[in-house]
């Protein structure tokens, strides 16, 4: 009896102690066996898939325009240089969206995030600046119709290209050079790692360029209406024909400017009023239409052009349709 008391000093029943001892042995044995934890599943945001798909379409569409202009020596006029600049900028924007998707899910790091965002900012900035340069070129081609095809115009075009790409590259380098919010998340904008100040500068710059484009297109409308009226008087056209031609030209300009505003204005205004605390779905919902502008640009500025249509037909089927070779340019083709 004394031996039992000495062996069971805790005062607990022996059956309970035996059960606890068995549990301890089982726990010790299980602790020696490595536990394989299930790997976390890679959750892909559907919005990122849509943006990547949009980037793929942008890249393919604008690559066609770049190749046509690059391989066709006859397309070296200032207008085609600016259209090529727009297509190249949109091509880089599409590539940036694809790279952003790949790095976000396969190679996550601060360096890749900064490089990707810098590429997207630079390419989209170059795209918007190229649209402004095309508007300036169209205005000059109508306002200075007699002296437009001169060496001075070509030089001015190259100066515009150097300035717009230089400015865009500088804007894209700002996050890489330290103007980012990776160290202070409270300064982040709706697009991390861009700071709120950086996003504000980009948004205000866009609004300024949009206002300038609007003013230039108003002047272009006036010139088109005046030219159409003069042509109608010289050829003794009816007033109805003059009205139809003028309305077509004004409608074309309205579609160009309206499409540009509809694509970019939501994201621009949202970037000014929002920050990183806002739900990300609002950022995706306003950024996606901005990418659509790069899809629409080749249709408006490249594939509607008669010379590019001829070059595309030569590449695809080796011939030029008679409808293209006999088509005359009208005042509405602006």
UniProtKB/TrEMBL annotation:
Keywords of this entry: Cell membrane, G-protein coupled receptor, Glycoprotein, Lipoprotein, Membrane, Palmitate, Phosphoprotein, Receptor, Transducer, Transmembrane, Transmembrane helix
Membrane topology category: Multi-pass membrane protein
Transmembrane segments: 47-70, 82-108, 114-136, 156-179, 199-218, 250-269, 281-303
Chief localisation class: membrane
Domain G-protein coupled receptors family 1 profile, first and last residues per copy: 61-301
GO cellular component, one term: plasma membrane
GO molecular function, one term: G protein-coupled receptor activity
Localization in the cell: Cell membrane
InterPro entries per record: GPCR_Rhodpsn, GPCR_Rhodpsn_7TM, GPR12, GPR_3/6/12_orphan
Entry superkingdom: Eukaryota
Any single Pfam family the record assigns to this protein: 7tm_1
Family the entry assigns: Belongs to the G-protein coupled receptor 1 family.
Matching PANTHER family: G-PROTEIN COUPLED RECEPTOR
Protein name in the entry: G-protein coupled receptor 12
């Amino acid at each position: 009896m004394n031996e039992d008391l000495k062996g069971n000093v805790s005062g607990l029943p022996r059956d309970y102690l035996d059960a606890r001892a068995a549990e301890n042995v089982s726990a010790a044995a299980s602790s020696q066996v490595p536990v394989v934890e299930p790997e976390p599943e890679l959750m892909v945001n559907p919005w990122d898939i849509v943006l990547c798909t949009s980037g793929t379409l942008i890249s393919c569409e604008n690559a066609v325009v770049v190749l046509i202009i690059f391989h066709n020596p006859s397309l070296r006029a200032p207008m085609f240089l600016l259209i090529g600049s727009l297509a190249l900028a949109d091509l880089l924007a599409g590539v940036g969206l694809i790279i952003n998707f790949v790095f976000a899910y396969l190679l996550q790091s601060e360096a890749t995030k900064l490089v990707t965002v810098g590429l997207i900012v630079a390419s989209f900035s170059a795209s918007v600046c190229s649209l402004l340069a095309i508007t300036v070129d169209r205005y000059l081609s109508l306002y200075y119709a007699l002296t437009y095809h001169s060496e001075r115009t070509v030089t001015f075009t190259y100066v515009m290209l150097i300035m717009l790409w230089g400015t865009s590259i500088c804007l894209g380098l700002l996050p890489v050079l330290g103007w980012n919010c990776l160290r202070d998340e409270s300064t982040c904008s709706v697009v991390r790692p861009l700071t709120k100040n950086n996003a504000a500068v980009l948004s205000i710059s866009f609004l300024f360029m949009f206002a300038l484009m609007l003013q230039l297109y108003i002047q272009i409308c006036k010139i088109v209406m005046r030219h159409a009226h003069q042509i109608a008087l010289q050829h003794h056209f009816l007033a109805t024909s003059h009205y139809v031609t003028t309305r077509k030209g004004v409608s074309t300009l309205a579609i160009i400017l309206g499409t540009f505003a509809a694509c970019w204005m939501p994201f621009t205004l949202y970037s000014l009023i929002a920050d990183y605390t806002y739900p990300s779905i609002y950022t995706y919902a306003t950024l996606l239409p901005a990418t659509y502008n790069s899809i629409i640009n080749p249709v408006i500025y490249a594939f509607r052009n008669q010379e590019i249509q001829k070059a595309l037909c030569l590449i695809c089927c080796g011939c030029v349709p008679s409808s293209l070779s006999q088509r005359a340019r009208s005042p509405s083709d602006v």
